[in-house]
Amino acid sequence: MFEARLVQGSILKKVLEALKDLITEACWDVSSSGISLQSMDSSHVSLVQLTLRSDGFDSYRCDRNLAMGVNLSSMSKILKCAGNEDIITLRAEDNADTLALVFETPNQEKVSDYEMKLMDLDVEQLGIPEQEYSCVVKMPSGEFARICRDLSQIGDAVMISCAKDGVKFSATGELGTGNVKLSQTSSVDKEEEAVTIEMNEPVQLIFALNYLNFFTKATPLSKTVTLSMSADIPLGELFDTPKDCRLYMDEERLSLP
């Protein structure tokens, strides 16, 4: 028997909204420590790794490990039936071919329940080794989303140049060029508004903006995003939330012209 109850159900809604356009189906691995997901997009350009730790749920029970094949588009449609303030419970029997989703509306005598068919997926787990990165930038996630959105009006790719004094985002297209530079901040009122840079050596890498715009759909999950960069390693993006939800995405770089 598996059952997980999340009072702040909007977190699960935001997770699915961030994933559904990038990957269509994935295996949710359920264990006593929590729920994890790992999948590549259909083009094998980007990798998504999600961890929902058991401590982040208000109640959590998992009698035995389960592997649930989930159509993310279908799950997102069902979760749209839940209000942002609803309590969400996920439930499945040990050998079930369906996942039950229960939505409770606080302060109302209203309970909605849905059953979603599970899929039989043959998924290969990919190891993500610990890496030493040349440059790690932590910045407000909303600012990163805006930069990607703005520069996608200029070109299809962005060059990210990282140095000790700041990080620069540049795009070139038929209408011209665009550049946004963020300097490292020394003092801010709120930690989540800071731009911090840990650099071993400067980097200059190019990435496809359409994938970065997919990644930034995770912005509502976290006030900050961590960008990890090295010359021969995919760009890593990490979104951490206070409710023990950890979403990691990476994208292969494009070749420098």
From TrEMBL:
GO terms for cellular component: PCNA complex. GO terms for biological process: leading strand elongation; mismatch repair; regulation of DNA replication; translesion synthesis. Belongs to the PCNA family. It comes from the Eukaryota. Keywords: DNA replication, DNA-binding, Nucleus. It holds the Pfam family PCNA_C. CDD domains: PCNA. Residues 127-235 form the Proliferating cell nuclear antigen PCNA C-terminal domain. GO terms for molecular function: DNA binding; DNA polymerase processivity factor activity. This protein is an auxiliary protein of DNA polymerase delta and is involved in the control of eukaryotic DNA replication by increasing the polymerase's processivity during elongation of the leading strand. Residues 1-124 form the Proliferating cell nuclear antigen PCNA N-terminal domain. It comes from Paramormyrops kingsleyae. The lineage of its organism: Eukaryota, Metazoa, Chordata, Craniata, Vertebrata. HAMAP family: DNApol_clamp_arch. This is DNA sliding clamp PCNA. It is found in: Nucleus.
